[in-house]
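> example.struct
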């Protein structure tokens, strides 16, 4: 990898094949095939961007048919008159080309979370402390609202796809965030001309997770937990989404600075399957969430 390694995630192709995504900090993405000796089978590189700024982070849709990445601007951002414009990029993972661009008047777009049916996605914006909603049918932004925390980073949906859990990292701010914002999307239920905020913060939960950045949804709906990595207090904290409180703290060995992880489910013959990671639920866990959603 040509730059500092940042995140590792997984996804399933439309054909059900597993892929691993690795990318550098503000850098290139490489995609590996674990079934073929982890050979590189695609990615996003400088020449892919055709002169545009390379994305900061990357996220694959639940169907495995659309990669989303957004640029972010760091450094001197104190200008009153010239706020940098970020861009959301859409890539086709069949040939790794750009299919669409959306310019956004926001400095730093960070995390993306997809609903389980793939119909919508939510994108956090660290500098403006907001979250955007993306309509996947048209790949357009439809609304935005407050994130409920300062310097939002990770955005995660619970098992009901109704509430957003937004990690307050303090990104582009003090970088010492210790809370999670709980945000509800009211856009589907707000009457025309109404005064209800379309995306509205509901609560802020203190976690003590210093510089919490992003999390992984527990693949068991009965647990209903979000496991959040804390890369400055060097632990993983467990947020109970029913109780809205931290119920466990897992120190990292030797003070290691964790950056999330994954839940892997093993069969009786020790065949492993990634069922949840920072890119969302996968495989049997995603199927379970879709099944539960269809019964509501």
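> example.seq
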């Amino acid at each position: 990898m040509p730059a500092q390694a940042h995140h590792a995630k997984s996804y399933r192709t439309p054909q059900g094949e597993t892929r691993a995504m690795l990318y550098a900090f503000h850098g290139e993405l490489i995609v590996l095939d674990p079934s073929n000796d982890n050979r590189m089978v695609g990615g996003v590189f400088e020449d892919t961007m055709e002169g545009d700024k390379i994305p900061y982070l990357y996220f694959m849709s639940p169907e495995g048919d659309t990669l989303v990445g957004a640029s972010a601007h760091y450094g001197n951002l104190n200008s009153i008159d010239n706020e940098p414009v970020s861009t959301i990029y859409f890539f086709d993972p069949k040939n790794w080309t750009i299919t669409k661009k959306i310019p956004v008047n926001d400095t730093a777009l960070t995390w993306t979370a997809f609903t389980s049916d793939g119909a919508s996605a939510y994108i956090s914006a660290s500098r403006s402390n907001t979250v955007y909603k993306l309509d996947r049918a048209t790949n357009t932004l439809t609304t935005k609202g407050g994130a409920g925390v300062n310097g939002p980073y990770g955005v995660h949906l619970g098992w009901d796809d109704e509430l957003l859990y937004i990690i307050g990292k303090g990104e582009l701010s003090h970088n010492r965030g210790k809370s999670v914002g709980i945000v509800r999307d009211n856009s589907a239920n707000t009457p025309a001309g109404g005064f209800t905020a379309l995306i509205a913060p509901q609560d802020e939960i203190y976690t003590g997770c210093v510089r919490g950045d992003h999390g992984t949804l527990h693949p068991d709906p009965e647990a209903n937990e979000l496991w959040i990595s804390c890369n400055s207090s060097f632990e993983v904290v467990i947020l109970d989404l029913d109780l809205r409180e931290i119920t466990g703290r897992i120190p990292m060995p030797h003070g290691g600075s964790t950056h999330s992880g994954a839940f892997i489910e093993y069969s009786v013959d020790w065949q492993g399957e990634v069922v949840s990671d920072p890119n969302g639920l996968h495989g049997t866990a995603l199927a379970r969430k879709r099944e539960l959603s269809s019964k509501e």
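> remarks
The first helix runs from residue 283 to 294.
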